[in-house]
Amino acid sequence: MQSPALGRARPLIPPEGLPRRGRCLVMGILNVTPDSFSDGGLYADTRHAIDRGLELAAQGADIVDVGGESTRPGARPVCLDEELARTVPVVRELARAGVWVSADTMHAPVARAAVEAGARLVNDVSGGLADPAMAGAVAAAGVPYVAMHWRAPSREMDHRADYGDVVADVMAELGARLWRLAEAGVDPARIVLDPGLGFAKRPEHDWALLAGLGRLWELGFPLLVGASRKRFIGAALADGGADEVPPAGRDVATAAVSALAAVGGAFCVRVHDVRASLDAVRMAAAYVECLDRT
Ligand code: PMM
Questions:
Q1: pLDDT digit string (tens) for 57-96?
Q2: Does residue 148 belong to any structural domain of this protein?
Q3: Residue 28 belongs to what H/E stretch?
């Protein structure tokens, strides 16, 4: 399949070691946390989390992303033992059941333990900035790695949303991360980049990045987009009014954004509501295939 973003055809090549579906993949979100912004507390105990992970897979999630630390603005970090205790048993059970599991962590020890427990992908919202040992850990594990654009920990990130041309700035900063990952021996064929919607970004930055996926493609890596239920969606639904639609009411709009991201060439979307986004990326695939023929 090819993407028509900016009117240029781009092959949708998934990184080595991930499922190939001939369409944008859908990653289901499983936050094993008491305080994530939209689903905090819902799956905070191991049994509920495993059941939810199995449910996401049954709904068609290509990958289930298990995280044990909230990254919402202002969130407080958790200690390593707590993050390990929240996530590793869930990763192990889901992997045992045949689910493709991703470990959403900024910490090398958690990434290592998750891979040992069966995770096939490490998803690091800090792109290696939070833990200097992460790049080496991922290189040694030999699994695909999502490096997201990040500027600061959650408690500070809202003060770091200053950009000139946000797409150019994000590309330059991701480019610097790529150097570091290469130095540490991470296989470029296993790297996925993510513009980090909502992380040190205001809504106008999120929209510019979404519309600028075609430019981000120029870095030459598959792109993951995490828009699900984020503030820029709530703000757009409020139509300029003061009342943002709360996170739970943003799933239909999220699916629309998933379709836009898939048409823009995203390799994967990370979402809470898997069914809606799976339909959306299927529609995008049919649309793009037709564009390719016309
Ligand atoms: N967003 C969140 C957490 N992990 N991972 C990637 N790769 N990209 C994202 O945009 C991203 C992420 C925060 O959202 P959540 O609290 O709903 O999980």
A1: 999 999 999 999 988 877 778 999 999 999 999 999 999 9
A2: yes
A3: strand 25-31
Whether residue 37 lies inside any domain: the answer is yes
Q: Which of 86, 229, 230, 231 is catalytic?
A: 230
Whole-prediction pTM: 0.94
Residue 9 is assigned to a structural domain of this protein: no
Domain-located, residue 3: no
- Contact indicator for 200, 158 with CB cutoff of 8 Å: yes
Is 270 designated active site?
Answer: yes
**Distance between CA atoms of residues 231 and 133, nearest Å:** 31
Q: What is the domain extent for residue 251?
A: 25-293
Burial class (CB in 10 A: 0-12, 13-18, 19+), 203: middle
> Residues 6 or more apart from 3 whose CB is under 8 A from it?
9, 10, 12, 214, 217, 263, 264, 265, 288
52, 92, 151, 270: the active-site residue: 270
Looking up residue 32, the CATH number of its domain turns out to be 3.20.20.20
What is the tally of structural domains in the chain? Answer: 1
Which residues is 28 bridged to in the sheet? 64, 271
Residue 209 and residue 167 in contact, taking contact as beta carbons nearer than 8 Å: yes
Side-chain-side CA neighbours of residue 205 (13 Å): 23
